[in-house]
Specification:
Elements (H helix, E strand, L loop, with lengths): L1 H16 L4 H8 L5 H7 L7 H40 L3 H5 L2 H15 L9 E5 L2 H14 L7 E7 L5 H12 L10 E2 L16 E6 L2 H18 L1
Parallel strand pairs: 2-3
Antiparallel strand pairs: 1-4, 2-4
Length: about 230
């Protein structure tokens, strides 16, 4: 038993001297040796600068590979989790097609993101997320008979952004005529400050001139809350 232990220890020392990491030593010897034990056995081994660099590089590479593997595993788990959420909410799609349900959803969305200033004669809704803007416009067009000519759109952006590209982007998202776009407004506070988020598309502000729809959307949450909850 002692001879086998001694032989294993000498093998470990030899492998370490050749520039092997503790992880490699465990795999080569096929012994699940605690790293604290390996460190103790190899504590008196002299490693020159090249050997140390080699080992350090292997350790960094292994850490990088481990992080990549972990990232892929977590990504897969998240994708599966999101699929399970979509699956358990699949039945809501049919309910959402109901215009009254859509109107409640629109009113709640506007309550959270729209302008609620008293005395307004129009809706004003702004967001930097193209999905949110698309959702708002689709619900509005679905739930009400809208006059497309009453839409106005304003893009708010940072000083270092390409205005033409931003306008083309929001034109595609909103399906609103370019003639109904106001001049893009640049935030003066961003002058000389480079944008950190390269995928940032600025903020799109939608105006729709209808006091009736504005008052309707403002009243729906109150009615639902008072009479339905």
């Amino acid at each position: 038993m002692k001879s086998r232990f001694y032989s294993l220890k000498q093998t470990v020392i030899k492998l370490r001297r050749s520039g092997k990491t503790y992880g490699e030593i465990i795999r080569i010897t096929k012994h699940d040796i605690p790293k604290s034990t390996l460190s103790d056995w190899c504590s008196k081994i002299y490693l020159n600068s090249e050997q140390r660099k080699l080992i350090d590089k292997k350790v960094r590479d292994n850490c990088k590979k481990g992080m990549e593997v972990a990232w892929q595993i977590n990504k897969k788990r998240r994708e599966e989790y999101l699929k399970s959420i979509a699956s358990r909410n699949k039945h809501l799609v049919k309910i959402f097609k109901n215009k009254d349900v859509g109107k409640i959803a629109l009113a709640m969305l506007y309550l959270g993101e729209g302008s609620k200033s008293l005395g307004r004669s129009s809706l004003r809704f702004g967001n930097s997320d193209p999905f949110v803007i698309d959702l708002f416009l689709n619900l509005l067009r679905k739930c009400y008979t809208v006059d497309e000519k009453k839409f106005r759109c304003t893009v708010l952006c940072r000083a270092d952004q390409n205005i033409n590209n931003l306008e083309k982007f929001w034109l595609e998202v909103t399906k609103i005529s370019k003639l109904q776009f106001y001049k893009t407004r640049i935030d003066a506070r961003t002058i000389g400050k480079p944008s950190l988020k390269l995928d940032y598309k600025g903020v799109c502000v939608i105006d729709y001139f209808s006091a009736d729809i504005f008052l309707d959307l403002m009243q729906i949450p109150k009615s639902v809350y008072k009479m339905g909850l």
